[in-house]
Amino acid sequence: MSIGAHLVELRKRLMWAAAALVVGMVVAFVITDPIIHLITEPIRVIAERRGDDFSALNFTSVTSAFDLRMRIAFSIGIFLSAPVWLWQIWAFIMPGLTRKEIRYTVSFVASAVPLFFVGCWVGLLIVPHVIELMWGFTPEGGVNFYNAVDYYDFVFKLLIVVGVSFVLPVFLVALNVAGVMSGKAILKGWRVAILIATVFSALATPAADVVSMLMLAGILIVLFFAAAGLSMLFDRRKARRVAAEMASGPIA
């Protein structure tokens, strides 16, 4: 294909992806109420514990409630339309890939996407602990009026960060498959991996919330060792395949 044909193909793929995103946003906008109810549950728990009305989601402008729903609709719309825009990306790059590269790409996506959503789910479990812990530092007589947009940004960013951290072990396996790192080399870095997982968990969760920090760090460490073990298994298979090819080769 010429460069012009590639650009026409790219424009077509982008239009389909954008249309899917719009449809996903419309659907997501309809279900924003249960989503808002879910992520604001910690605020209601805080208000119940305080026994007053000084803990609530605060909308500081005329359009802030609509802005919050649009932010939620855009974020959820991306997830809902993911099968369509992922397919458009795949359909655009697939003609230029070899059969082996296609197999590796499918395996990577099939592993990374579920892990990302599992990470988001773990982040959703951590969010209430983080908010309630931070509320505990409110001085006597203080109030907790959470700006709606800032509150949602905090929750969304935490979910994304935890979700992406769950995908990192898949990148290690991808580096092993590409021949960049061996399984033993990955395993030798277990001390550094534990340190990074602990530091990341401490940054992603409040320092005083030891339970959430240990839970997140433990999951990341298990995923790292799983990636190292899988990489070592791939190395053994590769070594056996090379040995078999050498054994079956012609004798000089």
Protein architecture, described:
There is one protein chain. The two termini are 45 Å apart. Helices cover 80% and strands 3% of the residues. Helix 1 crosses helix 4, helix 1 runs antiparallel to helix 5 and helix 6 packs antiparallel against helix 7. It is mostly helical and 252 residues long. It is flat, with a radius of gyration of 24 Å. The chain has one domain. The longest helix has 39 residues.
Mean pLDDT: 80
Outline the low-pLDDT stretches. none
SSE arrangement, N to C: HHHEHHHEHHHH
Number of domains: 1
Give the helix/strand class: mainly alpha
The number of helical segments is 10
Rounded to the nearest angstrom, the radius of gyration is 24 Å
> What is the count of β-strands?
2
Gross geometry:
flat
**Strand portion:** under 5%
Outline the biggest β-sheet.
2 strands, parallel
Task: Name the helicity range.
Answer: over 70%
Q: How would you write the strand order of the largest sheet? A: 1-2
Distance between the termini: 45 Å
Quickly list its features:
252 residues; mainly alpha; two-stranded parallel sheet; 80% helix; transmembrane helix; protein transport; TatC; Sec-independent protein translocase protein TatC
Topology (SSEs and partners):
Elements: H1 3-30, H2 32-39, H3 41-50, E1 55-58, H4 64-80, H5 82-93, H6 99-135, E2 144-147, H7 148-177, H8 183-188, H9 190-204, H10 210-248
Parallel strand pairs: 1-2
Helix pairs in contact: 1-4, 1-5, 3-6, 4-7, 6-7, 7-10, 9-10
Pfam family, one: TatC
Keywords: Cell membrane, Membrane, Protein transport, Translocation, Transmembrane, Transmembrane helix, Transport
Protein name: Sec-independent protein translocase protein TatC
